[in-house]
Amino acid sequence: MLKLRFHGRGGQGAKVASRTVGTAAFMEGCNVQDFPLYGAERRGAPISAFTRIARGQIMERGVIPDPDVIIVMDHTLLSDPQAAPLSGSNKGGVVFVNTPESPEQLKADYDIDALVITLDLTKIGLDMVGSSILSTLAGAVASRIIGIGEDSLKDAVEKELSGIIADRELLEKNIEAALYCFRSLEPVEMKTLQSEHGKSTVITMPFERARISSPAINAAASSILKQTGNWKVFRPFWDYDVCNKCMICVSRCPEGCISLNEEGFPSVDNEHCKGCLICVEECPKKAIKAVRGPVPDQVEVTGE
Amino acid sequence: MKREMLTGNAAAAWGVRLAEVDYVPAFPITPQTEIIETLSGWISDGVMDTRFVTMDSEHSMITAAGAASATGVRVFTATSSQGLLYGFEMIYTVAGWRVPLVLINVSRGLSSPITLGPDHNDVLATRDTGFLQIHCENCQEVLDSVLMAYRMAEDERVLLPVIVNMDGFYLSFTREPVEIPDVEEVRRFLPAYNPSHAYFKAGHPMAQGVAVLGGEYYSYFKYQMHLASKNALDVYKKTCREFEKEFGRKYDTIEEYRLDDAEYVLIMIDSFSTMGKAAVDRAREQGIKAGLLRPRLLRPFPEEDIRKALNGKRSVAVIDQNISMGKGGILYSELAGCLYNEKNRPFLLSFIGGLGGKNISPEEFTFIFDQLVRGEEAEVETPHLLYTEQEWEGMQKLKDIAGKG
Lengths: 304, 405
Ligand code: SF4
Ligand code: SF4
What we know:
The complex is a heterodimer of chains A (304) and B (405). Chain A is of the alpha/beta class. Chain A has helices at 14-27, 103-110, 121-129, 135-145, 150-162, 168-184, 210-213, 248-252, 278-282, 298-303, and strands at 2-9, 31-37, 46-54, 69-72, 94-98, 115-119, 235-238, 258-260, 266-268, 288-291. Chain A has a 6-stranded mixed β-sheet, sandwiched between helices. A two-stranded antiparallel sheet of chain A has the order 7-10. A two-stranded antiparallel sheet of chain A has the order 8-9. In chain A, helix 1 (14-27) packs across helix 4, helix 3 runs antiparallel to helix 6 (168-184) and helix 5 packs antiparallel against helix 6. Chain A is globular, with a radius of gyration of 22 Å. Classes of the chains: A alpha/beta (304), B alpha/beta (405). The A-B interface holds A 19, 22-23, 26, 31-37, 39-40, 58-63, 195, 197-205, 211-212, 215-220, 222 and B 5, 112-113, 116, 169-170, 173-177, 271-272, 274-275, 277-278, 281-282, 357, 359, 361-364, 366-367, 370, 381, 384-390, 392, 399, 401-404. Bound molecules: iron/sulfur cluster (2 copies). One iron/sulfur cluster binds at residues 236, 253, 255, 257-258, 268, 273-279 of chain A. Residues 238, 243-249, 266, 283, 285, 287-288 of chain A line the site of one iron/sulfur cluster (SF4).
C-alpha cells in the first residue's frame, strides 16, 4: 500500500489534490481511499488530506501518521509546529515542497532525511491558470512521483474539476498546468516501508479538579501569540499618496490588524494579516494593491 | 451498475436517489450537509422527482418528516450530533406514529466541549425511541443500508422508522470505490411504498398520533412498538437474503471476522471496525487466536446471533466509542446483559476508545490483546479509557497554553 499525505492551507486545494491522485489511481484499477481533515473551515488555516492506494484491501482509516509521500503545498507550513508536515517522514520516503528553493537548500534548512523534490507550483499556477489554487497541480505532482500514467491523470483532473468548475476554458488551463507539472518531474522508485509498531503506552487517566479539567481558557490574549501572517499568498500594500485616511479599510479588516500610524495612515500588522484582501476590495480610493513577495519594513513602505 | 469513488455522504445520497424518495425535509449540520447538498443539486437539476424543503430547525425537520410519512409517501431526512438532540423530542414522537421514514445520522461527538470528530453518544441516545438502527463500516454499506432500511421499515410486520448510522469524517468525507446499482434493479428489490395504516386520501378521514390517557392504553401502544421491533429481526434477515440475491453483497445482523476458531474477540461497531480487523490480522501473525464481531443491527438487538457467535470464546473486549458517565460503555452493558445467563460465557473486558474521533493506534490494540490473553488476570479498569502517554503529554501542553498550570 502507498500512503500519501498532503499539507496545504484552507482554500489552496489540498482536498482536491488528494482526490485527483486518488481518482487517477482508481482509474488504473487500484483500491483507493482518500480523506481530507479540517476543523471549523477557515481560509488559510493549515489543513491536510490523505490518499491510500493499494492493490488489495485497505485496512486502515483516518489520518496517515507514516506517509510514503508528503506533498507540502505551502512552503511556510514547514515551520508551523501544529501542521508539522514533516512528521513521520522516513528515509525511504519522498517529500515534495512547493517552493522556488532547491531541494538541497530545504534538506539543509529543515534537516530532512527523505528524498526532497521541489517545484514552484504557485508561480506555475499564477502564470498558467491565473490563480493560486493549486489542487490539480499538486495532484499531478503526486501522481507523477508514484508513477501514475499521464492519461489517467488527465482523465482524473477532468473528472474532479468538472464537478466544481463550469468554465471550460479554465478547466483546460488547469489540465494544461497539471500536465506541465507532471512532465517537469520524474517518477520515483517507491519503497513502501512496513511501519514499526512500538510497545503499548496506554495509561490510566487520573482525576483532575474542574479548575483544570473544564473546557475553559484561563490565559488572556493568546491569539497574539498565534501568528497567522504566513497564511497569505498576496499581501496588501498601501499607496499613501492616494489614501485619504477614510479608515474604511481599518474597520473592514476581519482580523483587526490595520491600525493608524503617527501620520494617521493605515498600517498593517503583517504578523497577523491573513491576506484575505478584503481591505483591497473595500478601499473606495483603490489605494491598496495586492502584491506578492517578502514584506518590506515600514520605512520602505512609507518611502515608496 | 457502475463503480465510482464516493464519500459516505455521496453514497448516502445515491441510496436516497435510488430509493426514489418523495420528500426530503432538510437542515444543515457538519458533517452531514453534503448529503442534503447533493440531493438538492439533483432535485434542482431534475434528475430526482422529489420535494425538497429546507426547515428552520431539526425539530421542525423531524416533525415534517414524520408528518409527511404519515400521509403515505416515502421520506428521507438526515442530521448529526447536536442536530439530532435538537430534534430529539420528535424522534420519540414520530416513532410512535409508526411511520417508516429513514434518517441518516452522521455521528459526531456531543457538546461540551464542542467538536467535529465522530463518536456514538449521539446515535445511541436514540436506542430506546423505537427507531431501528443499522450501523455501517464503509461507504458501500451506507448506500446499501439505505435501500435495506426502507425495505425493512415498510414491511407490514415492522412499520417503524430507521436510523442508518455512519461516522463523520471517517466515512462521511472519506471516498472509497462504491458500486451504484441501476434503478431497475433497485425497483425489483424495493417496490413502491403502499401503506395500509397511515395515508392521506380524500374521502378517508383519519386522526393520527392521538393522545391516550390511562397507563393500560399507553402500555399497549409502547409494547406493540417493542414487538414490531422484535419482528424486524426476521424481516431484516429476509431483507439481507433478498438483497444478496439482487445485488450479490451479503449482509447479516452481525459481521464475523476470523471468528470461527478465535479465542479472543474484539467487539466494535461502525468505521473503526476496519482498524480492529487490521489489529486482528496483526495479532494472528503473533500467534494469538484473535477475531472481531461487528454488530450491524443494534435495534432490534441481535441477541441470539451474538450469543451463538461468542459461545465458547475465552475473553471478549467491547470497545465502546461512547461513554455513559458514571457507568461506562453502553455496548458493554448491552453485551453483558445479553450473555449473563449463558453457561459457557466469555470473560468480558470494557474499553472506551475513539471518543471525538480519537485514533485507536496499533499500540492500543496490542494493549487490548495483551489484556485479553490475561483474561481474569487483566489489569484494567471497567471501563478502561484508551489513551496513550503521548496523548497525555499533548494534553498537558494544551493545558499550559490555556493557563491551567
Ligand atoms: S488582507 Fe487586509 S483585510 Fe485581510 S487581514 Fe490583511 S489587512 Fe486585514
Ligand atoms: S480605505 Fe483606502 S482610502 Fe480609506 S483609509 Fe483605507 S487605504 Fe485609505
